[in-house]
Design a protein that fits this description.
The protein has 323 residues and is of the alpha/beta class. The chain is built from eleven helices and eleven strands. It folds into two domains: 2-119 and 247-318, Bordetella uptake gene, domain 1 (D-Maltodextrin-Binding Protein, domain 2, 3-Layer(aba) Sandwich); 121-218, D-Maltodextrin-Binding Protein, domain 2. The protein has helices at 2-20, 37-50, 69-76, 91-98, 134-143, 158-170, 182-190, 201-209, 259-272, 276-284, 297-318; strands spanning 26-30, 58-62, 84-88, 110-119, 121-125, 149-152, 175-178, 196-200, 214-218, 247-254, 288-289. InterPro entries: BUG, Bug_dom1.
Length: 323
């Protein structure tokens, strides 16, 4: 009887919280260092969410490390009351394959709030590469098998994942050179120490515009409209059928967060995605706001499940794991 009363009290408490949510400040955990693309998305979103959530304070907390698994674990283990959220990117779909001992299950330990945006990627090369377009690059890659250095920003980074898929699509093994972030990788690419890199437009557009690197293609299924990138072909159109990589961001709550709270968060998120100032800031980053059904919680979850199925074989085929 006592146990039943305790359970009843807990259920009543959660219902009351759902009815009054949000009554306290909300924390959005970003599982990456401050100043990076995901951090910027989170801070811009926090500002856009305040109004539809009744003016509540929203704090962005950076909990970086282990390819975003540390911050994600913190949220998975947080109280399921809607006051601790996770904003993560494509890592949500790659962690299950990358980490043998992941302390949570992506598909079952979170409530899915909604998808936020997608960021295109570009394939770029050192400025001294003799290949000046993708056709010439294909020839150069074939002629230089065993000598190609492909840089990335570290295990699980967007550039790492795109590089794995590019090698798989080209069926050419390259020497992967991991760095401790995009900045040192880009520095070495511009300096000619590595040959190629595939990274987000948020990190490459400025270097492409300054002609500090050679741009070969974009990873989206359609051409981009950004002036400096609009003439770049897609990798699909260049012969790599089915090649499409975008770095998306989504919002999550701990498993067990009341359905009413998740619904309120989803409604607020959809309002934020229509905020003109937020749209302007995202466009400046080269990001595209999600406007389709993936904004909905259930569709967001289906999308991540499909991404897990997409990336798992690529990662396993490469033999890339972390403990």
């Amino acid at each position: 009887m006592k146990k039943l009363l305790v359970v009843a009290a807990a259920v009543t408490s959660l219902f009351a919280q759902a009815q009054t949510f949000p009554a306290n400040p909300i924390t959005i955990v970003v599982p990456f260092a401050a100043g990076g693309p995901t951090d910027r998305v989170a801070r811009d979103l926090a500002e856009a969410l305040r109004k539809p959530l009744g003016g509540v304070s929203i704090i962005v907390s950076n909990v970086a490390g282990a390819g975003s698994s540390i911050g994600s674990t913190k949220v998975a283990r947080a109280a399921p009351d809607g006051y601790t959220l996770l904003l993560n990117h494509i890592a949500m779909s790659t962690m299950p394959a990358l980490y043998r001992n992941l302390p949570f299950k992506v598909e079952t330990d979170f409530e899915y709030v909604g998808l936020i945006n997608e960021v295109p990627m570009t394939l770029i090369g050192r400025p001294t590469l003799p290949a000046k377009n993708f056709k010439e690059l294909t020839t150069w890659l074939t002629q230089n098998k065993g000598k190609i250095n492909l840089g990335n920003a570290g295990l699980g980074a967007a550039s790492h994942l795109c590089g794995l898929m590019f090698q798989s699509a080209m069926q050419i093994d390259m020497t992967t050179v991991p760095y401790g972030g995009t900045a040192p990788a880009m520095t070495d690419l511009m300096g000619g120490q590595i040959d190629l890199m595939c990274d987000q437009t948020t990190n490459t557009t400025q270097q492409i515009e300054g002609k500090k690197v050679i741009a070969y293609a974009v990873t989206t299924s359609h051409a981009l409209t950004t002036p400096s990138l609009k003439d770049l072909p897609t990798l699909q159109a260049s012969g790599l059928k089915g090649f499409e990589v975008t770095i998306w961001h989504g919002l999550y709550a701990p498993k067990g967060t009341p359905a009413d709270v998740v619904a309120k968060l989803n409604t607020a998120l959809k309002a934020a995605l229509k905020d003109p100032e937020f749209i302007k800031k995202e466009e400046a980053l080269g990001a595209v706001i999600v406007t389709d059904k993936r904004m909905e919680s259930a569709e967001h979850k289906k999308f991540v499940a499909a991404e897990i199925a997409k990336w798992g074989p690529v990662i396993k085929a490469a033999g890339t794991y972390a403990d």
